[in-house]
Write a structure and sequence with these properties.
heterodimer; A: 286 residues; two-stranded antiparallel sheet; B: mainly alpha; 78% helix
Chain lengths: 286, 290
């Protein structure tokens, strides 16, 4: 029984890791940038979602408008921050991104205060019993949202013209350009969707603890980087599997070796072990 | 100098040793590390435990250097397996792993850290002089390595590993050498920090510290010894200059980091080179005009 519960807990967290990490791995696949500021957008999404939900009383409205606004924010970051330094060595964009992330955390702290905000009437807090497993509605909603969003994403990329253009650009940007695909537009789309997904993940995570604080992006930022590396940088399917796997490893690890290592260290110990065996990640990227 | 200026200058000296160590790995040899604070921490904790057991100063610092260098060598072995961005994330993982281990171990003080570390016995001024002397020594050592055959080989590895291998540069050996030397320098810095602060907390050696050190290297101009030293002095003192807006100092720091990478990606060294080249060209044009 304990094992089943741990497995489910792991999959719940894993599904949210997946929603965060997909955006990150798409950015990497397209631009070869480790986009740390993604986690800043995750926190921004949580703030906007909370503020709009508290103002209007509707979580759905809060979530949709937050995702859209944060999506635009992601496009702005690409245009203003990454586009001018794309042909520099990789550490340049990485450090710029880290600087941006630190600045974003500070802006949240200065505007919204250091102690965090809470929902006035926290939605999705009821308990749901599935057989003998008890879940909170927010946890169930998190999994459902992850499945639906990633399902839509998969449909978009497999079966629509935009999706095909997108995949072609990720595969070989120059070739895609010579076939008449506007690769710059693809990049904007990529940042819009990836950032919007991060915002949704931020809202669900903040619903679990009913707390939005300036530093909430910290841990997911580093863990999402670990996940996309595990999944083989730029490989979407690998990233999804790695997310779920990491969620489960963490859930079991905190019970069995929690006295030696804390949760984050378990995640990174797992990462290092895997990379020593498979240096290209679990699923080789392109 | 008052007590405040003396301790500030001591921190600058320690940071120079720390940053030059990372410059050896990331600057000279091109292996980006996001976990340099872990080696700083290994040095500091080793030194602290020994110092509390009555080990003399020089031996404790030496042991810290050795411990950090050995751990660095092991991580260097990892760098032979993974490359580029994979390596950056692996070293970041090493940093988190170190923190995770320290936090859970009673003997390392756990979350509470280690306190009651004995003093170095040199007095404040004496300690500052010694730290600055060691920083100068590290600088000379860095310059010497850069100009040696080894520095030349590091350059080749940083530039293009595969080509270096083709021209029979032993890439693995040079990478290991860079890691061992760079992390040993971090170990010395850690030991010096231990005797300076006389109180260690796990968070002193967290991801933020790794990033701070990396930004010293990158803002200075990756690979440039003098650029890194100038950037280290500026970035260490900057939060003090901005104390009058203390609430905003991290914001300014993040924004500055971003701005330097966005507008001067080659760092201060690159910027100085550009200005220098421009004035030289201008001088030449003026010469020709007259």
């Amino acid at each position: 029984m304990l094992h089943l519960e741990l497995l489910i807990q792991g999959l719940i967290y894993g599904s949210m890791y997946a929603v965060i990490a997909v955006g990150l791995t798409l950015v990497y696949g397209l631009l070869r940038i480790l986009h740390v500021a993604h986690a800043g957008l995750f926190a921004l999404g949580a703030y906007l979602g909370l503020l709009i939900t508290n103002a209007t009383g509707s979580l759905v409205l809060g979530m949709l408008s937050s995702a859209a606004l944060v999506g635009v924010g992601g496009m702005l970051i690409y245009r203003l921050c990454y586009q001018p330094i794309l042909n520099r060595p990789p550490h340049v964009a990485l450090i710029a991104s880290i600087g941006l992330f630190i600045a974003m955390e500070e802006i949240f702290r200065l505007i919204f205060g250091p102690y965090g905000l809470t929902y006035q009437n926290p939605p999705l807090q009821s308990q749901i019993a599935l057989g003998e497993i008890h879940l909170r509605a927010a946890e169930l909603g998190m999994v459902i949202a992850a499945v639906v969003l990633l399902g839509i994403l998969s449909y978009l990329s497999q079966s629509t013209r935009i999706g095909i253009a997108w995949r072609a650009t990720v595969d070989d940007s120059d070739m895609a350009k010579s076939f008449g695909i506007d690769t710059i537009k693809v990049r904007y789309l990529n940042f819009f969707i990836g950032s919007g997904l991060a915002a949704v993940a931020g809202i669900f995570i903040s619903l679990l603890s009913n707390l939005v604080e300036p530093t909430m992006g910290g841990v997911p930022a580093y863990k999402a980087l670990a996940i996309i590396v595990l999944g083989g940088l730029g490989n979407v399917k690998g990233t999804l599997i790695a997310s779920l796997l990491l969620g489960v490893v963490e859930a079991f690890g905190t019970i069995y070796i929690g006295s030696i290592l804390d949760r984050d260290a378990i995640a990174f110990a797992f990462l290092i072990v895997v990379l020593m065996i498979r240096p290209q990640g679990l699923f080789a990227g392109r | 100098m008052g007590i405040y200026e003396i301790s500030l200058a001591t921190v600058v000296g320690i940071n120079i040793i720390l940053a030059l160590g990372l410059n050896m790995i990331s600057g000279f040899c091109g292996q980006i590390s996001l976990g340099h604070a872990a080696f700083y921490g290994v040095g500091a904790y080793t030194c602290a435990l020994l110092a509390k057991n009555g080990t003399p100063f020089a031996a404790a610092i030496g042991a810290g250097m050795l411990a950090a260098g050995i751990v660095g060598l092991v991580v260097g072995l990892a760098s032979l397996r993974v490359r580029h961005d994979f390596l950056a994330i692996t070293t970041m993982g090493v940093g988190f792993l170190f923190l995770g281990i320290v936090r859970q171990q009673e003997i390392l003080g756990g979350e509470l850290g280690i306190s009651g570390i004995p003093s170095s016995g040199f007095g404040k001024i004496g300690y500052l002089v010694m730290v600055l002397a060691l920083a100068a020594l590290t600088t000379v050592f860095s310059l010497w390595i850069k100009r040696s055959w080894m520095g030349f080989a590091f350059d080749a590895v940083a530039d293009d590993e595969d080509t270096a291998r083709v021209v029979t540069v032993d890439v693995s050996a040079y990478k290991l050498a860079a890691f061992a030397m760079g992390t040993a320098m971090a170990g010395v810095a850690g030991g010096l920090y231990t005797y300076f602060a006389r109180f260690l907390m796990p968070d002193d050696f967290g991801f933020i510290t790794s990033i701070t050190v990396l930004s010293m290297v990158a803002v200075g101009g990756i690979g440039s010894v003098f650029g890194v030293i100038v950037a280290t002095v500026i970035l260490t003192l900057m939060p003090e200059f901005f104390r009058f807006i203390s609430d905003y100092k991290l914001l300014v720091y993040g924004a500055l980091l971003f701005a330097v990478m966005r507008f001067a990606p080659e760092g201060l060294a690159g910027l100085a080179g550009r200005v220098f080249a421009r004035t030289k060209r201008k001088a030449r044009l003026e010469d020709e005009a007259t």
